[in-house]
Backbone:
């Protein structure tokens, strides 16, 4: 084992945004640097510029997702649009494999393990120097201990609970995207302007997270966010000595977990051959 200075450690930048349709989640893909692989389950890439930087892997089945992951190491940035759709494709795959019309508890358990392994794989890719961006749809959850109907329900990524918590723990950033419309009257004429923003802090109703340097303040929202701006707010210092990181992303010592092994054993071929 070789020790190295903390300043030499490159931290991962896995970033997750979730929100309603049309809130700027996919538009944010335009700001990812370099060549970009979009793993697309949503078929809603109209807001992505038709640029040669972008390659799209249209995923209609779980096998398509697995195949798309094999191309990830050839790009500077990877975007998953969206992980909620990836989950649904896995559900469908497991039901077809079991000749079942609905998910069972054992199948949910298997899905959780496989999806956690996929998240580990995305983190490992990010540790290898890639930019990784994950999109989720949102869902509202009523707070059982709240009796005041005026208090809003919590708004979280639309994933099974265990997977949502694992993605939160694994992400450097969790942000909620919003489309904001502002109006004002100028000389008797009402003028409106809309823009995108990502909420990073300040509202307990949302599942938000930003890992950062001590003392670095985080704005509640960022207007028309870009990858560079978000990453600038998420450079963290880890208060521990970390063993030398392997350059091979398939053998990262921190992220080689049981979930990751389960994901790899599930697929038909190695992700990185």
Residues:
């Amino acid at each position: 084992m070789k020790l190295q200075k903390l300043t030499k450690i490159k931290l991962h930048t896995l970033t997750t945004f979730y929100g309603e349709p049309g809130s700027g989640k996919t538009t944010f893909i335009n700001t990812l640097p370099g060549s970009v692989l979009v793993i697309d389950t949503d078929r809603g890439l109209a807001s992505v510029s038709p640029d040669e930087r972008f390659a799209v892997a249209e995923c209609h089945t779980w096998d398509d997702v697995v195949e798309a992951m094999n191309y990830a190491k050839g790009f500077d940035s990877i975007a998953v649009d969206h992980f909620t759709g990836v989950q649904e494709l896995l559900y469908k795959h497991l039901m077809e494999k079991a000749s079942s019309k609905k998910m069972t508890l054992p199948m949910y358990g298997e899905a959780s393990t496989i999806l956690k392994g996929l998240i580990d794989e995305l983190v490992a890719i990010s540790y290898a120097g890639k930019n990784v961006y994950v999109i989720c749809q949102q869902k509202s959850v009523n707070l059982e201990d709240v009796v005041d109907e005026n208090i809003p329900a919590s708004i979280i990524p639309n994933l099974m609970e265990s997977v949502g918590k694992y993605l939160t723990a694994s992400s450097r950033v969790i942000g909620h995207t919003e489309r904001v419309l502002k109006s004002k009257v100028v000389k008797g004429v009402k003028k409106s302007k809309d823009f995108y923003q990502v909420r990073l802090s300040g509202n307990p109703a949302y599942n938000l997270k930003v890992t950062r340097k001590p003392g670095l303040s985080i704005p509640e929202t960022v207007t028309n966010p870009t990858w560079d701006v978000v990453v600038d707010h998420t450079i963290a210092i880890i208060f521990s000595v970390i063993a030398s990181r392997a350059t091979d992303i398939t053998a990262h010592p921190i992220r080689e977990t049981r979930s990751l092994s389960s994901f790899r054993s599930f697929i038909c071929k190695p992700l990185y051959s």
Observations:
- The chain is about 25% helix and 25% strand.
- The domain at 6-266 is CATH 3.40.50 (Rossmann fold).
